[in-house]
Design goal:
The protein has seven helices and five strands, in the order E-H-H-E-H-H-E-H-H-E-H-E. It is an alpha/beta fold and 123 residues long.
Length: 123
């Protein structure tokens, strides 16, 4: 199982596929999931004019194309992991990374701050 960050979802939805060899291997060998928080951030970006599609549209397309699923996990466990992540003030980055950490999974993200602080972040 592997998680995708919001930027990775946008990247895949836009048709880009030039990830690192390591990320491509992980994407091809694992089921792809997003935290429900990615869906919320996608909708937020749409509402403020930084995304041209609603979150559900993006998720539905990637579900068909790559088998993307939304991972359900205890909010309490995600919050417990997020409390330890004082390296960011971005609530979406913090909670999305915490969700991956709480499930001990890799997170595909281009965010350099996440890559620096989360050992299982790849791009």
């Amino acid at each position: 199982m592997i998680f995708l960050d919001t930027n990775a979802v946008i990247y895949l939805y836009s048709g880009h596929k030039d990830f690192s060899a390591r990320a491509v291997k992980l994407l091809s060998e694992n089921d792809c999931f997003i935290s429900p928080l990615v869906q919320l951030e996608l909708q937020y970006l749409h509402e403020i004019g930084r995304g041209n599609k609603k979150a559900q549209t993006v998720v539905d397309v990637l579900a068909r194309e790559i088998g993307l699923s939304i991972h359900e996990h205890s909010l309490d466990k995600i919050i417990r992991a997020a409390v330890e992540m004082s390296w960011t003030r971005d609530p979406f980055d913090r909670l999305i990374t915490a969700h991956a950490k709480a499930t001990n999974c890799y997170l595909v993200t281009s965010d350099r701050t996440i890559q620096k602080h989360y050992a299982k972040a790849v791009w």
